[in-house]
Amino acid sequence: MNLEVQNYKDTRSGFGEGLLEAGKRNPKVVGLCADLTGSLKMGDFQKAFPERFFQMGIAEANMIGMAAGLAIGGYIPFTGTFANFSTARVYDQIRQVVAYSNKNVKVCASHAGITLGEDGATHQTLEDIGMMKMLPNMTVIVPCDFNQTKNATIACAEYEGPVYLRFGRPKVANFTSADEKFIIGKAQMLQEGTDVSIFACGHLVWKAVQALPILKEMGINAELINIHTIKPLDVEAVMKSVVKTGCVVTAEEHMRNGGLGDSIAQVLALNDPRPIEMVAINDVFGQSGTPDELMKFYHLDIQDIVEAAKRAVARKRN
Predict the structure, then answer these.
(1) DSSP strand E in 237-275: where?
(2) How far apart are CA 35 and CA 56, in angstroms?
(3) CA–CA separation, 163 vs 183, rounded Å?
(4) How far from 160 is each of 58, 62, 139, 233, CA to CA, in Å?
(5) Which residues of the chain have pLDDT under 50?
(6) Residues in Cβ contact with 147 at an 8 Å cutoff, skipping those fewer than 6 apart
(7) Exposure check for the chain: N or C terminus, fewer CB within 10 A?
């Protein structure tokens, strides 16, 4: 696969364009936003379909309840706010009126992880993937760039059932194909390799892409797979890769507890235990700083993936 950067765009803008396209394709698509229309890039949808957009104000719990009601009426509601408010603030409502009854609500969460940056720990969410993947019936999607977020949003509109869609604020490398159909639950092979399997999601996918040539110079032929769907996890793709390489690195902008790494480790434990190293945040809250500063401070950068791969390979050989 060609992994060259086409441009740099924020993934929240991919959501905004995807929502607009989904609205054009299906008149049942509606949008709800908790006072953050600009931040969620839902403005174009609002302008195109004012009768299908609802500004809910700072009332996230009410937004989820209304979305559930719209789903009962046959609509496809997309709710939008920051990831922290999309999950922790309304977890009870999501559990009780969306997941429990398997309603067709799309919970869309921007400004996820620590790359929210200067807003600090109260607005950064590092627990949301774990919270949402634990809910029965909930699908959890973490696309890696603008194109993939746009295509994932369109796929969510076509999918029947609750979805948690996670994306971010900063401009990041846009390197996947704009024309590639997003298949929920199907991992994306980015580079085949033989020495270590790297499974990444979200912003860490491009970091992992940049780690590949460094590892190659060290004599480590890494395989890179984009796990854009955390749940349902593509267990077949995971095990096929791990059986070939014999060791694993996971990389995510999330807590080590409850995230992608936990999901992969569980698959290994149940099927074929192998050495695994996790590039993730280790049981601490975030803090204020630029996205780049925070990624380095919390060891979520290119070199951290390289070092994790070296450790995994060393454990395999020992």
Answers:
(1) 248-255
(2) 6
(3) 14
(4) 28, 22, 10, 17
(5) none
(6) 6, 14, 174, 176, 177, 178, 180
(7) C
Helix axes 11-25, 146-158, angle to 10 degrees: 30
Whether the Cβ atoms of residue 69 and residue 97 lie closer than 8 Å to each other: no
pLDDT attached to residue 117 = 81
DSSP 121-171: TTT-BSSHHHHHHTSTT-EEE---SHHHHHHHHHHHHHS-S-EEEE--SSE
Greatest alpha-carbon pair distance for the chain in Å reads 63
The DSSP call for residue 289 is S
**Alpha helix ranges (H) inside 26-82:** 43-48, 60-72
The total of other beta-carbon atoms located within 10 Å of residue 97's CB is 21
Inter-CA distances, 291 with 41, 122, 142, 250, 274, Å: 20, 15, 18, 20, 32
H or E stretch at 9: strand 7-10
Q: Which residues contact 215 (CB under 8 A, 6 or more apart)?
A: 196, 221, 222, 306, 309
Edge-to-edge, what's the strand order for the sheet holding 222-226? 188-191, 222-226, 196-200, 248-255, 276-281
Q: Is the peptide bond before 232 cis (omega within 30 degrees of 0)?
A: yes
Nearest CA to 138 out of 183, 172, 185 is that of 185
- Residues paired with 31 in a beta bridge: 53, 78
82: DSSP letter:
E
- Return the pLDDT at 318: 66
Please tell me whether the overall predicted TM-score, pTM, comes out greater than 0.85 for this model: yes
For residues 166 and 11, the answer to whether their CB atoms sit within 8 Å is no
Give the chain's count of helices (H) and strands (E). 12, 14
Closest-CA residue to 182 (of 160, 151, 225, 158): 151
What tokens were used for 280?
């993730």
**Predicted pLDDT of residue 88:** 94
Place of tokens 């509601």: 77
| Interatomic CA distance for residues 252 and 288, integer angstroms | 19
